[in-house]
Amino acid sequence: MFASSAASSSWIAGFTVCFSLVATIGAQNLYVLRQAVQGEHVRACVAWCVASDALLVGVGVAGMAQLLGSSPALAQWLQWGGALFLLAYGLFAWHRALFVPPVVPAAAGGERVARGLLGVVSGLAVITLFNPHVYLDTVVLIGSIGARQEGWLKAVFVLGAASASLAWFLVLAFAGRRLRGVFANPRAWQVMDGLTGVLMFALAWWVWQGA
To answer: Which pTM was predicted?
Structure first.
């Protein structure tokens, strides 16, 4: 009975902490939302996001969080790198909004301009693994909380975090599917990229101030 209660508490802790962090507007979330609207390899994107979140949280729980936490200089470099990454992502979004003619995907009522599975997942992998701020969220913050769990409960915590990631990205995939009618209008893609740029600039400023 005690073991069951402890496992439930650890799972809920992992789910709650991870969901509170992943359920925010970020580069990875916007990429998945765009792919869901386009109807391209959405399941692969969701699978990658869940697997990468579980891996990074697991690494943090296993001890990387303590290592990074004991090095304030490294943490600061990660924050600066994250701010620059978000700034660059925002600039790319504004470039698409201002200078690249929007192409409406077939899933949203336009001509089919397909991207291969490798290209889609590779782009998502770059956004996930090359954003230094991701490591502060998943490895340091979530990982340090999970590391406080006892023994096998660490694995339960990671499972809870992975469940939160799965729930959130399924919501994003569903939302993207429902928004396909809106994005049948090319102007909607320009508005989305413009708002994405603004959000990325705001996040970059927030991360830079935190550094």
So the answer is: 0.80
Structure tokens at 208: 């830079």
Tell whether the torsion through CA atoms of 147, 203, 174 and 37 is positive or negative. Answer: negative
Question: CB neighbours of 88 closer than 8 A, spacing ≥ 6?
Answer: none
pLDDT digits 0-9 by tens, 146-169: 888 888 899 999 999 999 999 999
Q: What is the CA angle 21-87-116, rounded to 5?
A: 75
| Distance (Å, whole) CA 193 – CA 198 | 9
Residue 152's CB is within 10 A of a number of other CB atoms, namely 12
- Using one digit for the tens of pLDDT, what is the confidence trace for 122-154? 999 999 998 888 888 888 888 888 888 888 899
Predicted confidence (pLDDT) at residue 183 exceeds the cutoff of 90: no
Rounded to 5 degrees, what angle do the CA atoms 166, 172, 177 make? 125
Per residue in 99-118, pLDDT tens?
887 666 655 555 545 678 99
Q: How far apart are CA 130 and CA 175, in angstroms?
A: 26
Domain spans, the chain = 2-210
Whole-angstrom distance, CA of residue 64 vs CA of residue 124:
23
Q: For residue 62, with 0-12 CB atoms within 10 Å meaning exposed, 13-18 middle and 19 or more buried, which class applies?
A: middle
| Contact present, 124 and 28 (Cβ < 8 Å) | yes
